[in-house]
Amino acid sequence: KLCATFLFYCFLVFFVAPSFQQCDPDETAPVAICENDFEVELDTDGMVLNVDQIDDGSDDLCGSVTLSINPTDLSCGDVNDVVDVVLTVTDEVGLVSMCTTEVTPRDDTAPEAVCVTALTLTLDGNGDASITAGELDDGSNDVCGVTLSASQTTFDCSDVGTNTVILTVDDPNGNSATCTTQVTIEQDDPPVAVCQDVTIQLDANGMATLTAEQVDNGSNGGPCGITTFSIDNSAFDCSNIAGPNTVTLTVTNNSGNTDTCTSDVIVEDNVDPDAQCAADFTIQLD
């Protein structure tokens, strides 16, 4: 029992008493210990650092400490730059120590590309139509902002139908993403069919053939022109000489719009008959 009392007395004299002497008064600054330098990825809102990310066990011999860091907020403007984050350690009597960790923000996350699913454009009177990349966008985003570009923004008659257009979304730090929109190009103006009456001649075999081009009299297909001409009857023979012979011309533009007109076809037979006589012969009077 005596030995135990002696050991406790020694502990007080050699260990506890010096601590009380150092802390009364407390003139020793706390010890600031910072984490090693590190990189951090920005999230969707940038990055807010907390003390625990910088502190690596700072303490004070005489009591508790208060920790703070500066700066706390990292933004897109800091990406790839070294930011000195200062940890300030303050003890109970106001003594201060500081240390610094170099933090490098990174942005390796691609933006989110969001496209409208489909878009329909109508060609103007010159056969042209255009869009902007913004018209294809349906909320593309990135924490550091985005720029938009489209694989095609102008269209003409050759694009009538459905076209796949790619929207590219880039952020300021070299990351990109894409999405697609189906852009349908239409030509609303119908063609105008213009006919003329036609006279055709039967050949020696009593046959005649009519073409759509003979019936057409300057039909107009609009800015994109006419794709096809067709008629409902092209073959005629002797039975058509008496008439009437009405032929319908159908014109179609490259959007599938159609118009019709009619033509009166006169069929003539102006080929002289081939008269063939029998050989000379003798007859006897009765």
Automatic annotation (TrEMBL):
Signal peptide segment: 1-21
Cited InterPro entries: Ig-like_fold (IPR013783)
Top-rank taxon, per record: Eukaryota
Keyword set, alphabetical order: Signal
PANTHER family listed in its UniProt record: FI04643P-RELATED (PTHR24273), HYALIN (PTHR24273:SF32)
Protein's recorded name: HYR domain-containing protein
